[in-house]
Design goal:
- This protein is α/β, with parallel strands linked by helices.
- It folds into 3 domains: 244 residues, Amidase signature (AS) domain (Amidase signature (AS) enzymes, Alpha-Beta Complex), CATH 3.90.1300; 126 residues, no CATH class; 66 residues, no CATH class.
- 39% of the residues lie in helices and 12% in strands.
- An 11-stranded mixed β-sheet has the order 1-3-2-4-6-5-10-11-9-7-8, sandwiched between helices.
- A hairpin with a 5-residue loop joins β10 and β11.
- The longest helix is centred in the C-terminal third of the chain and has 21 residues.
- The two termini are 14 Å apart.
Length: 480
């Protein structure tokens, strides 16, 4: 399938119809999804109605938008009016929201065609998409291996050629890590740059919507299509959207790049040597293109994982309290009392990982432990933010691996701590609220793709995309 922007240009010019593009996309879904399970729901009828509207606009001489006729897939935690939205959880099985998320509204306004909702780790809690109540998603590059998570279905849909563009949410790396494991581009914007209205919450101070794409340019266009202030989201930034499209062709001349030493195996163990080698090669490629590249120490990054697994579960404990069989959630009617009903509902509705994190978060917020755990984690978060801000006084962008390893076999990381370590490189930018992108750069063990990560300061998206475009061009042959 062509890139998203090539499709949009062809549809807007009348060279292709949106209906034909959609048919091509759905044919791949029909052929591939039985072996991959990227989708929870395929919205064939609604998609053809949207495609017909785009084709009608073109016939009438109206511009349908920057993503005209582009088939897109949405993670199953983004609310879609009348289309099932489950968070891959039994507790929301069958729920159809009465409204669209702001990001979904803007995609429709941009002319995108929503093909369906993608599988995920339940309530976005996981790094492998093995925690879905509806079965695991498989990596299209090796179906014996995971696609990453929690947005594994969205990453797999793009990697398998089902759609050229998809969207996920990133709370601790849930866009960038699966992008790295599936060999796609994955982008997490500045916190507040894209509205969270209509995104079902996991950890509200960390969650952010962003795109998966086959090219850096497509990811930039997807960001432009849905970014911007939204008065319905109190954390939405009332500022102009960074001009990322103009940044793509600037090259690396004069760019200041810092390679984070703590995330290059110097302070944290468990990085595969091939991943580190490709990250060093990416640094060399930026230097060869004219960037100034130096190592930089950000000491507090080593505490990011610990702080995250107190803050995120604490916020999840609060956010998921609404799923009680009364306000939200499929009710289990066992028991004589309301308390019995709620216990039965949550026992049946939530999977093991969700229950684990709710209990961790409730403990961290409990009387006598709040200051020792949650309060201290928030102080560490401030330390991380200050360390990053100091680094950005010297550098325009920072570089690290995206994931410590390539895609791993199903069941290989059943121990929760081993699974959590997959996000050691991605979590710090969520805690800081900063943007970051994963770009495929060569291959590692088992000839599987390696992703390298570029990080930037608040609203520093332009420099990130500038550097990402350089790495995309310089990537070794064979990069996805």
């Amino acid at each position: 399938m062509d890139s998203a922007l090539k499709i949009a240009v062809a549809v807007r010019s009348g060279a292709r119809s949106a209906a034909d593009v959609l048919a091509e996309s759905l044919a791949v879904v029909t052929t591939e999804d039985d072996r991959i399970h990227a989708f929870n729901t395929v919205a064939t009828e609604q998609a053809y109605e949207a495609a017909a509207a785009v084709d009608s606009a073109v016939a009438q001489g109206r511009d349908p938008g920057i993503l005209a006729g582009v088939p897109v897939a949405l993670k199953d935690n983004m609310c879609t009016n009348g289309l099932e939205t489950t968070c891959s959880s039994r507790i929301l099985d069958g729920w159809k929201p009465p409204y669209d998320a702001t990001s979904v509204e803007r995609l429709r306004e941009a002319g995108a065609i929503i093909v369906g909702k993608t599988n995920m780790d339940e309530f976005a809690m996981g790094s492998s998409t093995e925690n879905s109540a509806f079965g695991a998603t498989r990596n299209p590059l090796d179906t014996e291996r995971v696609p990453g998570g929690s947005s594994g279905g969205s990453a797999a849909a793009v990697a398998a050629g089902m759609v050229p563009l998809s969207f996920g949410s990133d709370t601790g790396g849930s866009i960038r890590q699966p992008a790295a494991l599936c060999g796609t581009v994955g982008f997490k914007p500045t916190y507040g740059a894209i509205s969270r209205y209509g995104l079902i919450a996991f950890a509200s101070s960390l969650d952010q919507i962003g795109p998966f794409a086959t090219t850096v340019e497509d990811a930039a266009a997807a960001f432009v299509a849905i970014a911007g202030h939204d008065p319905r989201d109190s954390t939405s930034i009332p500022a102009a959207v960074p001009d990322v499209m103009a940044a793509l062709g600037r090259g690396a001349q004069g760019l200041r790049v810092g390679v984070i030493s703590e995330l290059m195996g110097q302070a944290i163990e468990g990085f595969e040597p091939e991943v580190l080698a490709q990250t060093r090669a990416a640094a060399d490629a930026l230097a060869d293109a004219g960037a100034t590249v130096e190592e930089v120490s950000i000491p507090s990054t080593i505490y990011g994982l610990s702080a995250y697994y107190l803050i995120a579960p604490a916020e999840a404990s609060s956010n998921l309290a609404r799923y009680d069989g009364v306000r939200y959630g499929n009710r289990v009617t066992e028991g004589l009392t309301t308390a019995d009903m709620m216990i039965a509902t949550r026992t049946a509705g939530f999977g093991p990982e969700v229950k684990r994190r709710i209990m961790l978060g409730t403990y961290a917020l409990s009387a006598g432990y709040y200051d020792a755990f949650y309060g201290k984690a928030q102080r560490v978060r401030t330390l991380i933010l200050n360390d990053f801000n100091a680094a950005y006084e010297r550098f325009d962008v920072l570089l690290s691996p995206t994931s410590p390893c390539v895609a791993f076999p199903f069941g290989a990381k059943a121990d929760p701590l081993a699974m959590y370590l997959n996000d050691v490189c991605t979590i710090p930018s969520n805690l800081a609220g900063h943007p970051a992108i994963s770009v495929p750069f060569g291959t590692g063990a088992h000839d599987l793709p390696v992703g390298v990560q570029l990080l930037g300061p608040i609203l520093g998206e332009a420099a990130i995309f500038q550097a990402a475009a350089v790495l995309e061009t310089a990537a070794p042959k064979g990069s996805a």
